[in-house]
Structure formats: C-alpha cells, structure tokens
Amino acid sequence: MSFQVFGIPVSRGVAIGRAVLVASSRLDVAHYFIQSGEADSEIARLGRGRDAVARELQSIKDDLPGDAPQELAALLDVHQMLLHDEALIEAAHHWILERHYNAEWALSAQLEVLARQFDEMDDDYLRERKADLEQVVERILAAMVAQQGKVPAGTAAVVQRDFGGEDPLLLVAADIAPADMMQFKRSVFQGFITDIGGKTSHTAIVARSMDIPAVVGTREASRLIRQDDWVIIDGDAGTVIVNPSPIVLEEYRFRQRQAELERARLARLRHTPAITLDGQRIELHANIELPADAASAVDAGATGVGLFRTEFLFMNRDGDLPGEEEQFEAYRAAVEAMRGMPVTIRTVDVGADKPLERLTIAELRHEHVLNPAMGLRAIRWSLAEPSMFRQQLRAIYRASAFGKVRLLVPMVAHLGELRQIHEVIKRVQQQLTDAGQAFTAVELGVMIEVPAAAVMLPLMLPHVDFISIGTNDLIQYTLAIDRADESVAHLYDPWHPAVLQLIASSIRQAQGVGKSVSVCGEMAGDAAFTDLLLAMGLTSFSMHPSQIPSVKQRILRADMGRLSGLLPPILASGDPQREAELVFRQAVRLH
C-alpha cells in the first residue's frame, strides 16, 4: 500500500531506493555491511550468540527453586522456543546472505519484521508475546557483544562497502548522531529519513555536505516504513513516498535525470573565478569535517577552507581523545591537500548536539544536562580542559609550517575568554619554541554565534584578526530556538529581522576597522541568501563543497554595487523575506 510521510526538507533532490531501517534498541550494537565472503563467519557468530543464550536460559531453569511459580518455568520455555524459531534465526540469515548485514544488524532487522507481525495479531495473548521476543533478541545481542569484545558504538555505526548492482539504499532511523553521520560519508546510502531533527541539525548539515536528499522531523517514519520498502525521498518538498505507484515512480525518476543534468551544467563553473558583474572578487571557501574532505573542496573549486570542524576527530572513540600527534597529522593532511590555499581550523566544538562519549569535567554526559546548548560546550569546554586545549593548539600551530593556517574559536561571548585564549596561545608558542618545533604566524578569529558577541563586537575586534559568522547558532540563540527540535522548527527563521540586523551590523563593523569577515553557517551555502549577503558587503562565503556551484552561479549574475543600494528597505522591513523578493525581482527587471 502506498502512503506518504511529511517532514522537513533539509537537503534537496530526489532519491529512490529500498529502505534500510536502523531500529532503536535498548542495547547499542553496531550496524555495518560485510563482504560476501564474510557471511559464513557472521552466521556462525549469530549461532554462537544463540547457543550462549540457550545455555544461560537452561541454567536459569535448572537453578529454579522447587517452590518457584510454574509460570516462570513456562516463560523460560517460551523464550527457548523463540530462541530456536526459524522465523527468527533462519530468517536473520537472509539479511546476512542477501543484504550483507552484519549479524547484529540482521537480527535487529528480523526482530522488527516479526514485531510488526505480532502487532497485527488479533489475539491479545499472542500480541503480548512480542515483549518476549524482544527480550530474547536483547539477550542474543548482549551475548554477541560480549563474545565480540569491543564493538563500534552508536545507533548506526556503519562501515562503508560498495555493492555494485544492488538496489539503491535509503537510511531510515529515529535519529542519527553526528558522529554516526560522519561514518556514512561516501557510503552506499543515497538518502536519509529521520523522525527528529531540524533544518540545521547535524544530520541535515552532513546530508547537505554529501549532496544527497534528506528529510528529517517526520516523527513516525521509522515506525511506518518497513525494511525493504521502496521509498522516494523528495528533498525539495519534504515528502517521503512509500511504495509509490509506477506512474509516480516514473515521474520522480524523470526529476532525478533533470537534476543530474543541472549538476553537470553547474560543474562546468568549477574553475571560473567568482567575480560579480561589477568586478568584485568573492572568496568561496569550503566547510569540512575530516582531512579527506579537503580533496572534495579542491575538486569543487573552493579557494580555501573556511571551517574545519575538528570535533569530528574526537567522536566515536569511546572517550579516548586524539593525541597531539594524531591531530597534527590530520591538520597537516588538510593543509597540504589545499595546495597553499588558506585553511581555517576551528577548535573543538563539543556539547549540545555534538556530545562526546565522555566529558572529562565532572564526567558529565550530554543526556544528563538539562540544556546542553547553553552548557559546557565549545570554548567553555576547551578552557575548562586546559591540557586538552593546549594539545590541540600545539597541533594546529605545528600544521601552520605546511601552509596558511588560521585559528577560529567558537562561541566566544566574553572579553575574559579572549584574554585567556591569548594567554594559552602564548604558552603554546613558547612550548613549541622550546621544543624546536616549527610554526608560523597564525591569524586568530572568533565565531560570532552568540548575540552578546555581535552586540559587543567593537570591544572584541581589537583582539582578533578576523571574524566568522556562524549563522546556525546565531539564529538559534537569537530566537531561543533549539535547532534540532522539530516541534519548534517552524520558528527557526534565518529571515528574522533581528538575525539580519546582527549579521549586517557584524559585517559592517568588521570591515570598518579593516578586519576580514566571512559567513560559515548554512545561510552561506543557500543560494536564496546570496544576493542578500552580497548586499551586506560580504566577500567571503564558506559552505559545503557541494553548495559552491549554485552559489557561484548567483554571484556571477550579481552586481554587488547595485545590490548594496537595495539593502536599507530590506533591513527596515518587518517582513525582510518578502521585501527582498520584491526589491531583488524589481532590480532584475530594471537591469
């Protein structure tokens, strides 16, 4: 039966494929693809896990006291029966052999299939047996984890493998953690659907960086969609179509072909300098998460890296933070890959929607913090962990010997923080000098993402070399909107007059004292905002490499001088988006 699910469109385009569900489990297990030759060993692992649980259940039954209720022994018998039911174990072999799932994933997938069947039963007693089945599967998974030793953490830790010739795959999950999203880069998945999230949640950001369609905030998708359902993701409309009719399927396949032709056309602009009609050169930099992403930035025609999000080096490590040498090698790799172009490295920004497996201060965990977006995160965490902070700064400064490096600090809101940062930098420079380690001058910048920083910018500018406006958090904090919460996603508004006033003011003030300024948030990569940012005087944009071609096309068609004259009525309007559409459309007609 065909049906639709609606959510928030966060990455444009159309994806068509079979659903791969990563079900939420009380036990965190790995989900990854295996090679065909590994199937027998995975089936054997599954068998050993089942046998271990069978022995455990039999031991529990043998040890029951004589006065134990008969129902308890009967319940154990039910679990033994489920444990050896072909509908569970033998069917799980199908997922291993046919879909190349690892054993834990195969078992979880089959659990979901059977759980749905139990839910549809008319008999109340049989419906209640679903809980027994879930308990049995949890026991098998726990046994397999124990036998395997250390297993990759996370709801969806996926090892990428290429299985040519198979149907395209679309990932469906309740949510995907940022660290898990990073493991999907260059994966077999061609689209994402999640129950929760907003336009600037990290699931959305990484999906855009991968240039694949995604819909988030669907609320019910992971419950309504079944394993192997044919699904269409309409990343433009925020619609998910499940089991589409042949006519609908063909319509979306046509749209896919048209989108591929458009991407090919834009790709021809890769080596064209981004210069406006009135001769203003615009820098188009790339946002990257890992050193390997630098190659994509160069291929997309980026003129540098405007934001290297180093926190992704710290994730999926079971709390074992990367050392100085590991970080240095990562930063050096990115710097060298950019071939002399500037690389702006942001110090670690953990907390909020990017928690580590552990936070070393008071061993706080993200889920125990009532409001993590306003808690111990970003520069606050770095200053609270001075040893870790110095270690990262040493690695960044050492990488500067191999190319142009700029240092960017997130979430600065106090002059006292800036003074502490300068003190730490001086100490790090002295440590490197004493150790005979080479480094060069590194410009210092701060992110303007807290309204307090934007308001007090004149006091901060004398202490920095540049600023970078992080629109994602600036919008979140200005409007008091949790950007990952779909229940308030409709209130997250980049066009809000207060947001535009802060951005325009920050650009004007920085340029007024000769300090460079860039925008590295999602607004920079959204072509709908390109004319507006140009009108504000912005000459440096940083975005995901996949977004560079469409933004460059808008820049090549823009007259920056003419646009600047259109800005005042937009900023003065109570409805800036509507006013911008009117004045920019009128300007195009007059041009």
Question: What structural keywords apply?
Answer:
Enzyme I, Chain A, domain 2; eight-stranded parallel sheet; globular; single chain; 3 domains; Glucose Oxidase, domain 1; TIM Barrel; 591 residues
Stretches with pLDDT under 50, minimum 5 residues: 150-165, 357-368
Number of distinct beta strands = 16
User: How many discrete domains?
Assistant: 3
CA(first)-CA(last) distance: 52 Å
Mean pLDDT: 85
Question: Structural class of the helix and strand makeup?
Answer: alpha/beta
Rg over CA atoms, rounded to whole Å, is 26 Å
> Could you estimate the helical fraction of the residues in percent?
40-55%
Q: What percentage of the residues does DSSP assign to strands (E)?
A: 5-15%
CATH class of the largest domain: Alpha Beta
Number of helices: 23
Largest sheet, strands/sense/barrel: 8 strands, mixed
What would CATH call the homologous superfamily of the largest domain? Answer: Phosphoenolpyruvate-binding domains
CATH-level-2 architecture of the largest domain: Alpha-Beta Barrel
Strand arrangement in the largest pleated sheet: 1-8-7-3-4-5-6-2
Shape: globular
CATH T-level topology of the largest domain:
TIM Barrel
Write the layout of secondary structure elements.
Elements: E1 3-6, E2 8-11, E3 14-22, H1 39-62, H2 70-83, H3 89-99, H4 103-119, H5 124-148, E4 169-173, H6 178-183, E5 189-194, H7 202-209, E6 214-216, H8 221-224, E7 230-234, E8 239-242, H9 246-267, E9 283-288, H10 293-299, E10 305-309, H11 324-337, E11 343-346, H12 378-384, H13 386-399, E12 405-409, H14 415-435, E13 443-448, H15 451-455, H16 457-460, E14 466-469, H17 471-479, H18 497-512, E15 516-519, H19 530-535, E16 540-543, H20 548-556, H21 560-564, H22 567-572, H23 576-590
Parallel strand pairs: 3-4, 4-5, 5-6, 9-10, 9-16, 10-11, 11-12, 12-13, 13-14, 14-15
Antiparallel strand pairs: 1-8, 2-6, 3-7, 7-8
Helix pairs in contact: 1-2, 1-3, 1-5, 2-5, 3-4, 4-5, 11-13, 13-14
